Amino acid sequence: MPFRADHITHFKTLESLRPPRPARVFGWMLLMGMAASIAFLLFVPWVQTSTGMGQVIALDPRDRVQNITALVPGRVEQWYVTDGELVKKGDPIARIADNDPELLSRLRAERAQADAEIAATQQAMAVAQRDVGRMQQLYAEGLSPRRDLELAQIKVADYGAKVAKSLADRNRLDININRQSVQIVRAPRTGRVLRILGGDNATMVKEGDIIATFAPEQAVRVVELYVDGRDVPLIYPGRPVRLEFEGWPAIQFSGWPSVAVGMFDGQVRAIDVSASPNGLFRVLVEQKTGARPWPQEPFVRLGAKVRGWVMMDTVSTGYELWRLLNDFPLQYPAGALDQQTGQSTSYGTASGSGKDGGNAK
């Protein structure tokens, strides 16, 4: 017999416990909210990300901050620049003087003496060579013993050895003169002197000592991000990256990059094949072609901190929530091609352990 609403009158206790109308409305709202949440988790897409921290660096090693060193030992006699000064390629930075102010003149005098010795030895060797010719003629005519001819030849060889030694000594003097002549340290490229580390005339410097730091201007910049090792197998050149620069206002919605505000686009340029000393892997990110350009100096300088999100595959929100609750790695798409071995795999997720570096924040 089907149940009808009037049958409840036969159950007095049940009729007395009938919930009020607001409670029934709340129950229906709760039921509809649960249904909407389940539909949201099943059908709303989520873009998985691998989060990393890093900084802005110059792509060309020559454009990075570099040290300017002393070319010769001595003392800094004069500075031509100050901290923060902009210089062009070849502009003088400092002049280094030797402790002996007459060193260059003495080296030149020694070189002149070496030239005179070489000329005298070469002249003596020419005379000895003529003696060898005469001895050969006399020996051929039987008027001179063979020993005299051999002694003349030995004398020519001795003069040749002396000439070679004198030339080597003169070359060493030339090297010393050239080194002492290059006493003015010049800017290697157009850039800015960041900091002067040398002292005054009382401070001695050795060859190779750092006297200033220098940063070139207009460098081609990239971003280096450090990501978790479990995410590296899923990162390859060309992956899109969203970047948040230090001091640049931005709001990031991980999983829904289209609603992020103040973010800049990039793409993966290269990935290190080995881990860094901090245990993470370095990923180089370059500016994406056709996207909004990155902030230029002075808003974002070399060395500025950057937070980045490498965009991975799109999954359902429910799967991502389940992955985070179980601390699983990012999804490894079925049929993906292993970049290292070239073998096709069909795993649902990448295997690994430890804390996931791609958790959505």
Automatic annotation (TrEMBL):
Q: Please list the residue ranges that the record marks as compositionally biased, kind Polar residues.
A: 341-352
The cross-references to SUPFAM superfamilies, in alphabetical order and at most eight, read: HlyD-like secretion proteins (SSF111369)
Parts forming coiled coils: 104-131
Key word Membrane present in the record? yes
Q: Which residue intervals make up region (Disordered)?
A: 341-361
Q: Where are the transmembrane segments?
A: 25-47
Under the heading InterPro entries, the entry gives: MFP (IPR050739)
Q: Sorted alphabetically, which PANTHER family does this protein's record hold?
A: MEMBRANE FUSION PROTEIN (MFP) FAMILY PROTEIN (PTHR30386:SF27), MEMBRANE FUSION SUBUNIT OF EMRAB-TOLC MULTIDRUG EFFLUX PUMP (PTHR30386)
This chain belongs to the protein called RND efflux membrane fusion protein
Q: What species was this sequence derived from?
A: Sphingobium indicum BiD32
